[in-house]
Design brief:
heterodimer, A: Rna Polymerase Sigma Factor, Chain: A, Arc Repressor Mutant, subunit A, 2 domains, 8 helices, globular, B: mainly alpha, Leucine-rich Repeat Variant, 78% helix, 0% strand, membrane (chain B)
């Protein structure tokens, strides 16, 4: 990212390669809409380019990126509060699997989980997303959200327990 | 043992985030309490299930649009920099150089990760620290190597990168000083002069300014140097300024500046 800041824009490509899938799924789980998620990923990278000069290498690129992603999502959420999410069946990749049943079970678990996530508040969803799906450390989430590490931990615990409760109600 | 307390620790336990003492507490409680054992199995399955969720693939549009965005931004950048003369070609060459730099950084990054995974925790921080300092040195060396590039804008960029460093060792300073004294391009020399102001307390730097004022005849750099010397209150500049006053070839503007300067150093 330091290279990008100094004007070497091509250096952004590897970062895009590395993170776009994760970001896309980040937005997908929050918005339940594929084309919106693609647009939001695009917005994140547009902002990264626009604000590249403000990047401070004392922070990890990843934290900075998620900060931007959160803002992008918050903006989107504010502007589309009334919009009902329309979660169409995600385009499935064709797997060469030995067991189709196993795949189907996986899919159905996933759908139930996503449904359960709908029962969470937005900030809880976000914290599950960051701590579980994106695999960030509490310390990093604290940096991204501006909360203390302890607060993040407590929130994450509550969110995961709530999610589990909701999940087993649905399953 | 309090079940509620153990329950609160379960998730951290499953994530391997507890210290040894807490982990032992959880383990010994689990062997004795069936309720918590069930709870533990439950939580374990659930976390496992979450971790098992596979990512969806975005459509090919996403990458395409990104590349479009990048191209547009590069086009913008090019238009901005076209005011400078030979930028375009240099951008390319500088890019080549940065590719090598990036490759080296990646190698170190991998080394760093490997270092992280070493089992002995004591050596670990040592390894990381030494890798990090190697990395910094490497960055610095690469930047300094750029100062030997044939085109002025590349050297200018390198000076700007060095300028951003908060602490400079003697090596960086001497490279900048050398650039100030002998770079073929006046703009690069000027940038070096400005970059050095941050370290103006260093005797090496002060001497370099005096030396440069003595030898350099371009009015623009003379003016820059006089301003800097006044700013840093370098009294030894007085004699040099008097010489500039006497010199017939000096431009009137420069003479004027020198006169002002002499007044400051009474």
């Amino acid at each position: 990212m330091i290279l990008v800041r100094s004007g070497e824009l091509n250096a952004l490509s590897p970062l895009f390669e590395k993170y776009h899938l994760r970001l896309y799924n980040f937005f997908l789980r929050l918005t339940k809409n594929q084309s919106i998620s693609e647009d939001l990923v695009q917005s994140v990278f547009r902002r990264i380019l626009t604000y590249r000069k403000t990047y401070n290498e004392q922070h990890k690129f990843r934290s900075w990126m998620y900060q931007i992603a959160r803002n992008v999502h918050a903006n989107y959420y504010r502007n589309n509060k009334l919009l009902i999410s329309d979660f169409s069946e995600p385009e499935k990749i064709e797997y060469e699997t030995d067991s189709a049943i196993e795949e189907m079970e996986k899919e159905s678990r996933k759908r139930i989980l996503y449904e359960a996530m709908d029962g969470l508040q937005t900030d809880q969803k976000e914290i599950i997303e960051l701590s579980r799906f994106q695999g960030l450390k509490y310390r990093e989430i604290a940096e991204i959200t501006g909360l203390s590490e302890t607060a993040v931990k407590v929130k994450a615990h509550r969110a995961i327990n709530k999610l589990r409760e909701l999940y087993f109600k649905l399953a | 043992m309090n079940c509620k307390y153990i329950e609160d620790l379960l998730i951290e336990y499953l994530d391997n985030n507890l210290n040894q003492e807490q982990a032992n507490e959880v383990e010994s409680h689990l062997t004795s309490c069936e309720n918590c054992r069930n709870e533990y199995e439950h939580a374990k399955q659930f976390l496992h299930m979450i971790n098992d969720i596979e990512d969806e693939q975005p459509s090919a549009n996403l990458s395409m649009k990104f590349n479009q965005l990048l191209e547009e931004e590069k086009e913008n950048q090019r238009q901005e920099s076209n005011q400078f003369t030979d930028q375009k070609q240099n951008n390319y060459k500088f890019g080549e150089f940065l590719k090598y730099a990036a490759a080296i950084l990646i190698i170190f990054g991998v080394g760093f990760l490997l270092g992280k995974n070493l089992p002995s925790t004591n050596d670990q921080s040592m390894v990381i620290a030494s890798l990090q300092s190697d990395l910094n040195n490497m960055k610095q060396n690469l930047t300094m190597a750029t100062l030997k590039q044939p085109t002025s804008s590349q050297r200018l960029k390198a000076v700007n990168i060095l300028e951003k460093q908060d602490v400079a060792d003697d090596k960086v300073l001497s490279v900048l000083v050398q650039t100030l004294q002998s770079d073929a391009n006046v703009n690069v020399r000027m940038a070096a002069a400005n970059a050095l102001t941050k370290f103006a307390q260093h005797p090496l730097v002060r001497n370099a300014y005096l030396e440069a004022l003595k030898n350099q005849k371009e009015p623009s750099i003379q003016i820059t140097l006089i301003n800097i010397l006044i700013d840093i209150q370098e009294n030894r500049a007085k004699i040099l300024l008097e010489e500039i006053m006497k010199e017939d070839k000096s431009l009137p503007v420069v003479k004027e500046m020198a006169k002002e300067g002499i007044k400051v150093f009474v």
